[in-house]
Write a structure and sequence with these properties.
Layout (H helix, E strand, L loop, with lengths): L16 H17 L4 H7 L5 H8 L20 H13 L7 H4 L2 H4 L1 H6 L2 H12 L5 E4 L15 E5 L2 E12 L6 E7 L8 E7 L5 E5 L11 E12 L3 E2 L5 H37 L1 E2 L2 E2 L4 H29 L5 H26 L9 H7 L1 H6 L4 H11 L3
Family: Belongs to the acyl-CoA dehydrogenase family.
GO cellular component, one term: cytoplasm
EC number: 1.3.8.7
Length: 391
């Protein structure tokens, strides 16, 4: 048995036949609609608008959302979401495509979990149908991980809030019709933070793209500005001062998805390194016959195994409602370290071939940093875990 993306996956006792059916269906779709075009999208720095409708047609956008709003929820669990992240990564993008096409995965839950019924009915159906888009605005130019110190303000004025400030490094913002936005409605600290759904077509909203990035080239990343934007008070998500809690509960699923993506990227790097090592010859024998190369591959598989086992445990814990945030934070660190290690070792094995654009190893190596920082940097994750462990 040669190591490849599938054979390097540990046996998962929690997967049912319908999970594998979803993997097969999604992989066929990705091979047809994404893989042949991804390099061009990366070079162009954008994804065609038609992809949203195509994704809705096979149920990718609707996965896990209530059927009353156009979602697909019966029999769907976190394993379906994990498989989706794995397969998009296998297609060649370690989060860049997902952070655009599936950005509603972090932008829509605040509406679904804390918005009024009217907001849910207005936003969810067109987003899940691929007709509209929604993003999440947390990070500011003055800081990212310190959510309790955000400076974008929302001052109540009758039946509206007047919003001033800006958000940056926001995935999917350039094409978004709404942004679930963290704003300061009260005093200092987390208790002064609220969440507000802001339509991007309101007067005073402006956006600029951030398109000179190390990785995630096809991702729709930008900065959004609010200049005396009048937002209806009924667009408040939850209660005033509840925003910090809304943000924190939204982070955990995002971090799990990021960790799954990074493990899948590490496994794809392993696959490409093994294939190259079995074909490339140096000094009269295959690279795979050199002990130093064999040891590199074995070490990659060792770290991938450990990360997979960790994620299997945490995924099932999340399904059963017993996932510890500290353990999840450390899993994200584990996954980013594994991805970085495997991308580096695969690059060493491929040599000069890994330095040319158009292969997964080159792209994944560039995408290590955004995955290690986004959703909470390694340093923040370690500190969060230490606090969760009551140190």
């Amino acid at each position: 048995m040669s190591l490849n993306f599938d054979s390097a996956r540990l046996y998962n006792p929690y997967l049912r036949p319908e999970h594998e059916e979803w993997r097969t269906q999604l992989r066929k779709w990705l091979e047809k609609e994404v893989v042949p075009f991804l390099d061009d999208w990366e070079e162009a720095g954008k994804v065609p608008d038609s992809l949203w409708q195509k994704a809705a047609d096979i149920g990718v956008l609707q996965l896990g959302y209530p059927e009353v709003y156009g979602g697909i929820s019966e029999g769907i669990d976190q394993w379906h979401v994990n498989i989706t992240n794995e397969e998009f990564t296998r297609a060649g993008s370690a989060g860049g495509l997902i952070s655009n096409l599936l950005i509603h995965g972090i932008g829509l839950p605040p509406v679904m979990n804390y918005g009024s019924e009217a907001l849910k009915q207005m936003v969810a159906p067109p987003v899940l149908a691929g007709e509209k888009r929604i993003s999440l605005g947390i990070t500011e130019p003055s800081g990212g991980s310190d959510v309790a110190s955000i400076t974008t303000t929302a001052v109540r004025d009758g039946d509206h809030y007047i919003v001033n400030g800006s958000k940056t490094f926001i995935s999917g913002v350039m094409g978004a019709d709404w942004v679930s936005t963290a704003v300061r409605t009260g005093g200092e600290g987390g208790r002064g933070v609220s969440m507000l759904l802001i339509p991007t077509d309101l007067p005073g909203v402006a956006r600029t793209p951030l398109n000179r990035k190390q990785g995630w080239w096809c991702a729709d990343t930008g900065t959004i500005y609010f200049d005396n934007v009048r937002v209806p008070a009924e667009n408040l998500l939850g209660e005033e001062g509840q925003g910090f809690w809304v943000i924190m509960t939204n982070f955990n699923p995002e971090r799990l998805s990021l960790a799954v993506t990074m493990e899948a990227a590490a496994r794809a790097c392993l696959e490409d390194a093994v294939e190259w090592a079995q074909q490339r010859k140096t000094f009269g024998k295959r690279l795979a016959d050199h002990q130093v190369i064999r040891h590199k591959i074995a070490s990659m598989k060792q770290k991938i195994n450990a990360t997979q086992a960790y994620l299997q445990y945490l995924t099932q814990a999340a399904i059963e409602g017993r996932c510890d945030p500290g353990d999840l934070a450390m899993a994200k660190v584990q996954a980013s370290e594994t991805m970085e290690y495997c991308a580096r070792e695969a690059s060493q094995i491929l040599g000069g071939a890994s330095y040319l654009r158009g292969n997964r190893v080159e792209r994944f190596y560039r995408e290590v940093r955004v995955n290690a920082i986004g959703g909470g940097s390694e340093e923040i994750m370690r500190d969060l875990a230490a606090r969760q462990y009551k140190l």
